[in-house]
Amino acid sequence: xxxxxxxxxxxxxxxxxxxxxxxxxxxxxxxxxxxxxxxxxxxxxxxxxxxxxxxxxxxxxxxxxxxxxxxxxxxxxxxxxxxxxxxxxxxxxxxxxxxxxxxxxxxxxxxxxxxxxxxxxxxxxxxxxxxxxxxxxxxxxxxxxxxxxxxxxxxxxxxxxxxx
Length: 164
Prior knowledge:
8-stranded antiparallel sheet; 2 helices; globular
């Protein structure tokens, strides 16, 4: 299953890895099908680390979410450059709608003894140059958040696409 994101900086495509992260992919597709991501922004951009989005409107208001899901970080997938993972709080089972794209091999985010890790559930298959362009935007501190793009990086739409 693939999802195409149209953003204010260009489009990118994500392949979802349902065999390895079934609950996470089902949850993500629920938000896609509800058009939850439309009109959200990438609210956290840290070059060489991640771009994060999925949960905030341009005025940095958090969108309502469904119940949190179980952390599937034990699925064997690694937080490598170009992968998508679920964002969460310090509670490992707190992920809802926010996700991030790894801009580098972030091994320290992987599950290991004594560390719950962050669940990888997809990978960029097209448009990594768009991700890198987003990663290069100027950021600042805004409304209590660090690393927020000065000019909004908006998600216009996120839709399932045929894999024919």
